[in-house]
Amino acid sequence: MGPMNTLSYTEKGCYTDHGVSGYGVAVRLIRKEPISEVLLKEIAEEMMLSIAKKCKELGARAIGHIKSHIMTEAGTIKADTIGVSHGAYSTGHLEHPVMDIYMAINSIVQGIPEEAVKAATLEGLHEVAEREDLTVVKEKEHTYFDEFDFMTTKQEYLRQLEEQFSDNDTEDDD
Amino acid sequence: MKITQIAGFLGCGKTTLVLKLSRILADDGKRKVALVVNEIGEIPVDGKVIEESGMLVKDIGGGCICCEVAVSFGKTLVTLYKKFNPEHVLVEPTGVAIPHQVKTAAKMGMRDAKISIGAAIVLFDATRPAELLDMDMLGRLVVNQVEDADILAISKVDAVDEAVLDDVAQKVREHNDRAEMLNLSSFTGVGLDRLVEIILNWEG
Fold it and tell me: Which pTM was predicted?
C-alpha cells in the first residue's frame, strides 16, 4: 500500500474529536480621529483578551490562540493571546497614525462549537471597537487578504485590500 | 528538498521559531529555503506575518494538512519542488496536527518530486504544562504530538524558572523517552543553533 492510501479522509479534522473549533473573520474599521501605533496595539490586545474571555464564559476549556493581523497604509500590527491569564502581546510598527484599518482575526478554541467561537469573536471585536470609537464598516468571514502585493504603492495596496471584501457573495456591509 | 516540520500545540511559538530558523538556514541567500504554513480557522494570519519578512511562503487553508487537506499539502510540495527547488522546506502545521500524519502527507509528494523527510520538531510550551497535559482537556492531542516527536523542544524557557523547567521536562519525557530534548527560546536564541544543526544533518 502506497502512502496515498494510508490516510483516511473524512469531513472531520484530526482535531474535531478533541473538541477544537476555529473561526476566522476579516473586518475593515475606520475612526474619525487617527490612531497611533501605541493605541492601536492596546486596542488589538484588548480585543484579543475580550474574545478569549468571552470564549471561556461560553464554556471553552482552553484557548488555543486568538490571533490578529492588522494591515494599514502605514504598516502592520500583529496581536495575540493564548488565554486571559497569559496576557496579550503585540508587535509591528506604524509609520504614522491611521484612520483606516484592515484586520483579520483567527480564533482557535477547545471545548465549544464553532458557532460559539464565532459569537465570542464577533462580540469581542464589536464591543471593543465601539468602546474605542471604531466603526466596523465591512465584515466578512473567511477573507484571506492574500491576493495583494506588499511592494506596490500605498494607494494600490489599499485598493487591493478593499477588493478582498467584494470577491464573493458573503459580504456583510454595515 | 528536505521537509522539516515545526509542530506543537497552538500558541507554543511555532511561527516565531519558523521565522528565526528560516533566516538562519537561508544564510544570506546561500541556501534556498521555503516555508509552508497551515492554519485552521480560515484566516492565515501566520502566513501573512511570515510573508512580510520576505520569505517564500505557501499558505494552505481550509483545514489541517495532516488530514482534511493532506492532498493539497502533497501538491504544494511538488509545486515548490518544480518551480523553486529549495534545499529546505520548513512546514508549520496547524497547532492541532499529528506529526506522523504530516509526514505521511508529505510523502505523497515523493512520486513527483525528490523529497526527503526531515525531523519532526515538536514544541512544548513551558508556560502551560498543566493545561496542555490535562487529560480531561487537550491531553490526548498534545500527548499524541509529543509521542510523535523526533526532537522535543521545550519552548519559552526564558519565561519560567529552572525548577518549573525541570518539572516540565520530566512530565514531557514520560510520553517520549526516545526523542532528543532541548530547551528553546526564540526570544533569547537558546537552542536555535542545535535545531539548525539537526535540520541540516537529519537523515531519519
Answer: 0.80
